[in-house]
Design goal:
- The chain is mainly α.
- 51% of the residues lie in helices and 4% in strands.
- The chain has four helices and two strands; from the N terminus they run E-H-E-H-H-H.
Amino acid sequence: MLAQIPGPLASVTADGAYDGGPVYRAVAERQPDPSVAVVIPPRSTAVPSPKASSMPTQRDRHIRMIQIKGRLGWQKAVGYGRRSHAETAMFRYKAIIGCHLRARTLPAQKTEAKVACSVLNRMTRLSRPVFHHIR
C-alpha cells in the first residue's frame, strides 16, 4: 500500500491488526526518516522488544505510554482518533453517495468524486448547530 503514495510520509495510522514488526520495517524501508510517526495500537498482549531499555522503537514507546497513561490516554496523545474520523467520513460517503463511481473515464471520475465530497461537506455544514452567546 505504501508504494501507491508518491510523496514523503508524515505519518502512518492503522488499526491494531497491523501491529507488528513487518509494518514498522516497511515504513522504515519506504522512508528511512525517523520522524515518520507510525500510529498503530499495540495488542493488549504486546511486550517491549529486547532492546527497549537501550534503543526503544516507536512501538516500544507506544507500549510504555499505554502502561503510563492507559489506552485512551495514549490514543489522545498520539492523535489516534483521526483514524476513526477518516473511517466515519468514508462510511458517510459510501452510505450517501454509493460504493461505485458511475463515470467511466478517469477525468470524469475525478469530477464525480469532487462533486460528491462537496455535497457531503455542504450537508455536514448544514447539520452543525449554530451557537450564539447571550450577554
